[in-house]
Amino acid sequence: MEPLMGVGKAGLKSSNKPDILVVLLPQSCNASFLFTTNHFRSGSVIYSEKVFRKRGTVRALVINSGNANCGVGPEAVLHAEMMAEKAAALLDIDPEEVLVFSTGVIGKPLPIDRVLQAIEDACKLLEPLDLKRASEVISTTDRYPKYDFVKDGKLEVYGFAKGAGMIHPQMGTMLAFLFTNALLEEDVLHELHREVCDRTFNSITVDGCTSTNDSFGLISLGVVREDLQKVRKAVEEVSLSLATKIVEDGEGATKVIKVVVKNASIELKARMLAEKVATSLLVKTAVHGRDPNWGRIVAALGSTPFPIDQNSIRVYIGNHLLYDGKVHSKAVEAARKYMEENSVIEIIVDLREGKSSWTYYTCDLSCEYVRINSEYTT
Amino acid sequence: MEPLMGVGKAGLKSSNKPDILVVLLPQSCNASFLFTTNHFRSGSVIYSEKVFRKRGTVRALVINSGNANCGVGPEAVLHAEMMAEKAAALLDIDPEEVLVFSTGVIGKPLPIDRVLQAIEDACKLLEPLDLKRASEVISTTDRYPKYDFVKDGKLEVYGFAKGAGMIHPQMGTMLAFLFTNALLEEDVLHELHREVCDRTFNSITVDGCTSTNDSFGLISLGVVREDLQKVRKAVEEVSLSLATKIVEDGEGATKVIKVVVKNASIELKARMLAEKVATSLLVKTAVHGRDPNWGRIVAALGSTPFPIDQNSIRVYIGNHLLYDGKVHSKAVEAARKYMEENSVIEIIVDLREGKSSWTYYTCDLSCEYVRINSEYTT
């Protein structure tokens, strides 16, 4: 038994394309949902988090694009509830097992009548889940749909997502939904979800701005028993694939940047240093200019609470060693050539003090980003 | 008795303008020095911090522009020491009372012979301290010199600074030196310095990138006894003046942005929220586009560890209320007009939960910033 989907149109997007997606699971499923840590949150996030915390299982998802259902006062939560109840009534399922997600413009109330009608249309015409189509329906400013599928023996993990790296003029939302046929108990599922999320969706950045609507779900369809490591590997693979697609789609992005901090004393240090480099405007503009500017990289590394040994660390771009306590001028030209020729730029920092590492993904900063985000009018 | 200055040229700047400044104080002075918190630090910073921590008083400053004396290995600290000793020998003062500061390109060793010769030239031709000239000599990419002077009865506070908001292609350094004729004991001086620095130089940002060389000195010439509150007020005034000049001079900046978070429950919360808004790329590009985009402001406010009550907070641009749990669409046009017409844009956030407030200064983000910082070649 596969998940089913239905599509509707409430006229929320200026493109006038379908903007309502309903996903119906074969039965009540164990799942794990992670939501934005932003304290300013969409009514849909508030509602879904509350319901899922209470219930713990899920049967259906209702997702709308084109409107974030956010910044409009307490009615936003009421509207999310109405959307869940509408779908539940039509699908004859428990409303407490229906979760609601939104993405789009902040500050405009949902035209709830049109939304409820579109949900009705969607529920009446269910078909097998089509990952590409699902991604398209929930997309706002994505340039291409984001989905992936991994099969390992009997194990299946697949998912669809949206997010174009915060280019939505208000701010981009990342939505990602992964499904696996593996049977996973609640605790195991939550732990796996958190760990994978940390290393994938929580390790990407385009402009460091956290949305009010980000949501990531991992749903266990509970069909086959599988070795946990095998499941983890497949879930990580699909998650990383979707997460990097989001970064690649950052408007104005011409390069993906992979920041690897390795051999740190502790994981938190590796993570903070990687994040600091990945969010540095000076590093991102240097990559945009194909400039192997190690000085900006080390300045970013040095600006967290964690000390660094400036005489011992090593900084590479690609596999070109640029700094190891002293500068390697001859490597600069080779590094520049590497930056011209590759679409993914690896910045590798070796702290040489331990065994922990972290990787953060970002993209370069261009005039296109500034133009897009300064030309939007409220 | 006034401070004296001498100027020299070591050929460190591509403009081939004077790049060595020596300041000689009338006697050993109480002082307070604050340095960058970046763990990757200039040899001059390492040296000066070590010497001052040991000694606690200062008699002379040696400042070079055009070279950060950073990222070149341990010799950088030796070079700083040589510069201090050269000046001390020529001025017949204690070398442990000579502090060294550098600003400029990272990764190039100082041509120490030329530097020492230029220090000699400077020491031989001392004249009364000219704030404007001093600022010019230590400047790298500033578009104009930064200095100010406050007089209140017998009390005098004056200073000079450099810094063009992190536009130096490696990264900008902020140097600021304040002098007062007020007699201040060491403890009082340190506390005053820290408090003023927190609310001024530590509350400005252009691109959130922390330099390897930032230094701020407050020197007490110890001539007149003055009421501490009076001194604090004057020191704050000069510091704020210099700090905002630095933000104004951010390359590509067309607007100064003043982010005020008020009525927070605690000071740290006000500060973190103000800083988050001031460092948000989405807010800075919105200001660049003269777009009164409150949605981006609240998303930034919500993305710190501190919770916010999205139904109770109020967001103003200028004195136009845009959001107070619901949107005020009619205020949008007036706010946009305000943004077109004013060179300083005030974003005011009223949390309505306490009595603490904080102000952060930044500037808008433009294509010019991206262009400057991506066109530099290492």
From TrEMBL, chains A, B:
Q: Which HAMAP family match?
A: ArgJ
Q: Which gene encodes it?
A: argJ
Task: Please report the organism this UniProt entry assigns to the protein.
Answer: Thermocrinis albus (strain DSM 14484 / JCM 11386 / HI 11/12)
Q: Which residues bind substrate?
A: T140, K162, T173, E251, N373, T378
- List the catalytic activities from the record: N(2)-acetyl-L-ornithine + L-glutamate = N-acetyl-L-glutamate + L-ornithine; L-glutamate + acetyl-CoA = N-acetyl-L-glutamate + CoA + H(+)
Please state the protein's primary subcellular location.
Answer: cytoplasm
**In this UniProt entry, which residues are annotated as the site Cleavage?**
G172, T173
* Residues annotated as site: Involved in the stabilization of negative charge on the oxyanion by the formation of the oxyanion hole: T103, G104
Q: Which family does it belong to?
A: Belongs to the ArgJ family.
Name under which the protein is recorded:
Arginine biosynthesis bifunctional protein ArgJ
- Pathway as given in its UniProt record: Amino-acid biosynthesis; L-arginine biosynthesis; N(2)-acetyl-L-ornithine from L-glutamate: step 1/4; Amino-acid biosynthesis; L-arginine biosynthesis; L-ornithine and N-acetyl-L-glutamate from L-glutamate and N(2)-acetyl-L-ornithine (cyclic): step 1/1
Please name the GO terms that the record assigns under molecular function: L-glutamate N-acetyltransferase activity; L-glutamate N-acetyltransferase activity, acting on acetyl-L-ornithine as donor
User: Which Gene Ontology CC terms are recorded?
Assistant: cytoplasm
Q: Name one Pfam family in it.
A: ArgJ
